[in-house]
Design goal:
Layout: E1 5-16, E2 19-30, E3 34-39, H1 45-52, E4 60-65, E5 71-74, H2 86-96, H3 101-114, H4 129-141, E6 147-151, H5 159-174, E7 178-182, H6 186-192, E8 195-200, E9 203-209, H7 218-226
Parallel strand pairs: 3-7, 3-8, 5-6, 6-7
Antiparallel strand pairs: 1-2, 1-4, 8-9
Helix pairs in contact: 2-3, 3-4
The structure holds adenosine-5'-triphosphate (ATP) and magnesium ion.
Amino acid sequence: MEELKILECNNLTKSYHKKPVVNHLSFHVNRGEIFAFIGSNGAGKTTAVKMILGLVPMDSGEVKFAENIRVGYSPETPYFLPFLTGYEALDYYGGLQKIPRPERRREIVKLLDTVGLENSRTKIRNYSKGMLQRLALAQSLLGSPDLLILDEPTAGLDAPGRVEIMGLMETLKKSGRTIMINSHILNDLERICDRGIIIKNGARAGTWNKTDLGTKTLEEVFLDLVGGTTK
Ligand SMILES: Nc1ncnc2c1ncn2[C@@H]1O[C@H](COP(=O)(O)OP(=O)(O)OP(=O)(O)O)[C@@H](O)[C@H]1O
Ligand SMILES: [Mg+2]
């Protein structure tokens, strides 16, 4: 794989009950960019992301990561043990990554601050949806991953929260991280992403590049390609 690419997907294919959900999907993500992975509800984004991460077995296709990279993932529906605090949950995952205890403590305190969560005694069962999203983002950042794969990281966040998280994405990019992000808030993606793919029925409907958008908005490009319907 060329050094420029951090992730390459070739012909990813998956059917459920004989219905294709991801259909010969190929794309790549370059190092250092924010890559938008766009599609209507049910287009196959979450399934493709899980195939990339090995969480869902693929029928066929190939996923190649650049050598020796670390990958962080924030799932569409984050789940944490409800009786833990945010700190404790991150401590548990940091332990699984074998981050030494003093370093882990420093990193978690910093990460909670980075995602705008207080290091409080509040149990996760009492978290709001936005707080859970922020904790999932913090978890994906544990261990300083090179590539972040974020499945709707701002779903459920209020407008100031979204602006804040998009700002964080830009900061992470500046610090050399690569981000693959999927979201339905196309205005947000247009602002922060360099490039992306739009999928429909699990297959490529088109690609998008910030530099050749011209006067069109990403939403217009999207609606032209997918016809403004679901699926
Ligand atoms: N485990 C499963 N069993 C059967 N069908 C599934 C399964 N997982 C996903 N699907 C189907 O695959 C299709 C794609 O779902 P997926 O969750 O990948 O879409 P998505 O693009 O992430 O949508 P959204 O924007 O709503 O999150 C849907 O029709 C869904 O019903
Ligand atoms: Mg999804």
